[in-house]
Amino acid sequence: MESIESLGEFGLIKRIAKTITIKQPTTKKGIGDDCAVIDTTADNLKVVTTDLLLEGIHFDLTYCPLKHLGYKAVAVNLSDVCAMNARPQQITVSIGVSGKFTLKAIDDLYDGIRAACDRYGVDLVGGDTTSSLTGLTISITAIGEQRTGKLSYRDGAHENDIICVSGNLGAAYMGLQLLEREKKVLHGDKTSQPELKGYEYILERQLKPEPRTDVVDFLEKIGVVPTSMMDVSDGLSSELMHICTQSDKGCRIYEDKIPIHEQTRKMCEELSINPIVAALNGGEDYELLFTIKQEDYQKFQSTPGPEIYAIGYVCDKDKGRRLITTGGDEAELQAQGWRFFSSNTSDK
Amino acid sequence: MESIESLGEFGLIKRIAKTITIKQPTTKKGIGDDCAVIDTTADNLKVVTTDLLLEGIHFDLTYCPLKHLGYKAVAVNLSDVCAMNARPQQITVSIGVSGKFTLKAIDDLYDGIRAACDRYGVDLVGGDTTSSLTGLTISITAIGEQRTGKLSYRDGAHENDIICVSGNLGAAYMGLQLLEREKKVLHGDKTSQPELKGYEYILERQLKPEPRTDVVDFLEKIGVVPTSMMDVSDGLSSELMHICTQSDKGCRIYEDKIPIHEQTRKMCEELSINPIVAALNGGEDYELLFTIKQEDYQKFQSTPGPEIYAIGYVCDKDKGRRLITTGGDEAELQAQGWRFFSSNTSDK
To answer: pTM for this structure?
Structure first.
């Protein structure tokens, strides 16, 4: 059986490179030189994003299989490209691996990376492999493209724009809570099996998120460029705060409009968590949060495509950023969650 | 005094972002959104390279000040862009930092990163900051540009091309040997001062390498596109092997043509190392190694510019890859170093 050590860095890179087929016409040169080479076309812009993932901080190999980890590491970067209303085309992947990992483990990781690349038509064009003293380090950079004038930034929301989200929220967070609970159970009793039945959806949301390239394609199809956009990685509340701050606006969102999956609700009930808390703070759903002009809203309804949920609207900055609860109360949104109003609040 | 914890991730990013001024006309959007945005022009190609640096593997903070580390981490990536005959324009920087680092330490690191960016007119356009369980992790991605047809790959060397190098070799390696020696001395005797006098040049080559953007500019000026090019990061021997393998060629280089600095020779003498070993295997010099057509050679001599050393020539693959020693002997080059011929060699 080959080992990582016997292969060496160049051997490992070769092993990875030979499984890769180039799919994007803009990829002129992939792995094998000092740099990858990417073609450009007039009137197109490139977007670049990067993420650093460290074992023990961003992932726990106790319950995250390496194949899933590879897939997710790619997916979250592609999601950032989508969040600009651009299309991902290339990624680079660097890994640092300690002695505890076998070659099989690295193959599993790259199987996941390759699966995500294949699904989204993205080319793995370069990277770096190195040994590490402790644990696994993954650094991914994604590059995408979009025509000039079609990108969506965080700072373009206008008053009366409709706030939309591309799917249900809080599921990935509740999937994580379930995994954490089962991990504790397993630590206490080695013979028991984790009880995950009936929660497949929220587990998949946590372990295998999908970037919404279909939403970017749909927006193109119906001719809508969101006035602002982000992906929900830290939680709806936190992302809304970014859009409001950078656009210098306020917002209203409605509790009863925020899509929450039935498994999310069920898990919330089991763990005594308010589902709206999971939706506002949870994060890692990687849905797209965006604002559109009112007149664009009908375009979503007249063309079949992915379901888009209108959850509120953009207002003047002075009106604050608030959640309207199902009971009709107003609560101020905060970076992590929200806080019910009190008339003598001191930190408005 | 502020701490990293009190700032938080967003605070840290803001702190970094506010010290940055955009210099490149192609940088349309830097830090502050889901992606950076980079402009393209017709007839230009983008090149991308990335490096992952881990404490204890790639650097030792005992003798590498954080400011130098930041500078070097950027420099080595810009060097990879130069090695394609392209010009670096943007970088992203991701860091993972454990609790042992103060905010001052991170500021020092970014001072070095910024100094390299300023010197080479490169924009820091994005990245990621995260906590880590152990030590410091740095991941840098560099993006550059060059016109179609002007890039140099590893696989374009032709028979009779002249092999050139842009500066002396082995100095960075001997600088490292000196630092290692002084580290041992310091560990033994806490009162003694490291003896570095007279070795400033080789220390600087190790601690503060410079990417040869000036050589890329000069090549443009004299209208020469190298038929193949790499930067010397792993050692002359190893890089030559890559060019020969990928170009399907052999080579001859001459011991007495390989430029070696006088401080390198002196340190080699002190440590009983053959200077040619340091030059062939040392690595980290970040000089450009390239091949040019014979008729292009006179262009280097007729225009003032950085000194370029012709060290040998490309030959047919069947003639092997050999070093001609000062004494006139031939030795076969190997990935790490070289080996004198014996007529009954079994692994030719």
So the answer is: 0.93
